Amino acid sequence: GIANQQNLKMFRLTALAFALFAASASAIEETRATDAAFDYDHPELWKDMDGSECARSKNSPIALSTMDCTHYANYELHLGDCTIADMNFSVTNNGVKLDYGARTCSTPHFDIPKDSITSGTKYHFNTHIHLSSEHTIDGVYSAAELHMVHVNEEFLQGAAGMRAAVLGTMVMPNSPVDNPTFERYLKKWQLAREAVDCGCDGETFTVSPDVAEIDVYENMRGKDFYHYDGGLTTPPCTEVVWWNFNTEPLLISIRQFQVMTDIILNTRVLDKGGNCNKITVASKGGSTSRPTQPLNGRTIDKICALSR
After folding, report:
1. Could you tell me which residues come within 8 angstroms of residue 34 by beta carbon, excluding any fewer than 6 positions away?
2. Per-residue pLDDT of the chain (308 residues; tens, 9 = 90+)
3. 236: cis peptide before it, omega within 30°?
């Protein structure tokens, strides 16, 4: 009798443990199915994620306002020797992205022309786009926002003192013609989507090979920038970013914006169960942008170009 009671107790404990394991595994599989650990319908929950800094005092984005110049200097923008063929283009749960993979070329890099606090060359690490702008200027949003993420040598080496710097700009689809440089990016992202999308119904997209040099700073040269100390706009919101936000938008055509939006919101991949699902973590309204965060006494500078 005692042995049977012990066996029954052990069976119940085993069953409970299995149920808990199954629930955890299900949650893990659900997360892996979209490669997502967050979404844009519930940004208020980001602060609860492991290692999150999303509730600290120097978060981004912020609300910017028209202001007079506080510094006059030219950003030193250097292209390196990379061509578009050296870039990896991908479609992720958070949108479209380009990076340099194995970094076999000398990547574009720049210096912030302010003071010793921000000194040190920052190297282009990736470019990505958020649907609806994250920053605002005078309370106004734009259709999208492009981030050119740069990192210092310490970041590349995994050493202490890691810092990032972002060249950001609003994206507005009100050009009457296609933007030629953006079109080169767009075609690469279309090919990247075709390579992973399980819902293309046999459609194919072909373009001529593009291996030429490209000026990734084309829309940044000779411009004025809002400059402030902040963080990443996605979890874990790490506060290591010197923000440099272009006062002028990148102009693209309505067609280009529609193509980009379709890639970001409608790309589908097979999950672990073999189901063809959209990978986006966009909100129900189609946004992949975090709301603006409190300034908390931070200083915003406006660095204006010496010449145009």
Report:
1. 93, 271, 277, 278, 279, 281
2. 544 444 444 434 333 333 322 332 222 222 222 334 689 999 999 999 989 999 999 999 999 999 999 999 999 999 999 999 999 999 999 999 999 987 789 999 998 887 656 678 899 999 999 999 999 999 999 999 999 999 998 888 888 888 999 999 999 999 999 999 999 999 999 999 999 999 765 455 555 667 678 899 999 999 999 999 999 999 999 999 999 999 999 999 999 999 999 999 999 999 889 999 999 999 999 999 999 999 999 999 999 998 75
3. yes
User: Which tokens sit at 205?
Assistant: 């997209």
Length of the chain: 308
| Burial annotation 70-92 (CB, 10 A radius, 16+ → b, else e) | eeeeebebebbebebebbebbbb
**With contact defined as beta carbons under 8 Å apart, do 129 and 259 qualify?**
no
Q: How far apart are CA 64 and CA 288, in angstroms?
A: 19
Q: How far apart are CA 155 and CA 14, in angstroms?
A: 46
Q: Is residue 137 packed enough to be buried (19+ CB in 10 Å), middle (13-18) or exposed (0-12)?
A: middle
